[in-house]
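Reading a protein record of the kind used here takes only a little practice. The integers have meaning only within a learned vocabulary of local backbone shapes. With that in mind, consider the following protein and its fold in token form:
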Amino acid sequence: MTFRRVLLVLHLWAALLASVFLLLLGATGSFMVYEREVDHVLNRRLVAVRPGSPELTLTELFTRLEKAHPGHKVTEIEFSHQPDVADEVYLDPGNGAEGMVLTVDQYTGKALGDARTANTFVNSVHQFHTHLRMDKHREAAKLIVGIASFFLLFLSCSGIILWWRRKLFHINWRGSGKRINFDLHNVLGVWCSLFLFLFALTGVAMTWEGAFNNLLNRVLPAGSIPERRRMPQPPGGAAALSPDAMVTAARATLPGADVAAIGMASGKPVDVRMKFPEDRTPIGRAACWWTLIPATFSVR
């Protein structure tokens, strides 16, 4: 059996085994491009606000929420960065009890509702795409997705090799149905091969993220990442920074980045998540960790 014949058989079997997962992951991935917009439509009662007056300062916003919910303290906030979409906060009752996740009007400080009552269709699609909704077996699901991505990587590379002999760039519409299907497969396959290769490579990288990051750090060393500082004992008379002061300090630390979320767990440094304009992740990959004193901070 020739090398080309072996490669063709492997190409066909790889396509057969991976096609179901690739089709489902491709469909859900396409949906996720618009997941935020769809989620806002499905949960309009929880996210729609009417912009008009200036946004409240964080201090004012937190004060109003904590006054409306006695015994609770705002420990997290995620900003929407859209004038007509509400922010989201976590109210902690303390004592290890479960808190409330609320959407809040950033202009009035009014809570719009409990985020846990939201329509979860979009989140379900997202979870299926990332781990097939196998919550109790995430690692196994992640491995399945990674293997499917590896098959796609093989398909994109082997397809180019198989295509190379004929180098078809046009479709013979006068041929038989089988011939037209064959030409379509060749022409569309070669034009899409680069995109398929990139999708597959990123899927493999996301599955084995740790190993992939280690490889990249060896090839393209970017320096050490600062560790999160432990909360030091504040000096006598030290006053906690206000949330607004922390936001101002974080923006000064990472010019050009905006604040995406703030976490203020008791006894831990404040975690200020930052996003640069080119960052497409939901929360942002940059962060500042602040203690009570402005001089002690870390940046990631």
Remarks:
- The CA atoms of residues 174 and 180 lie 8 Å apart.
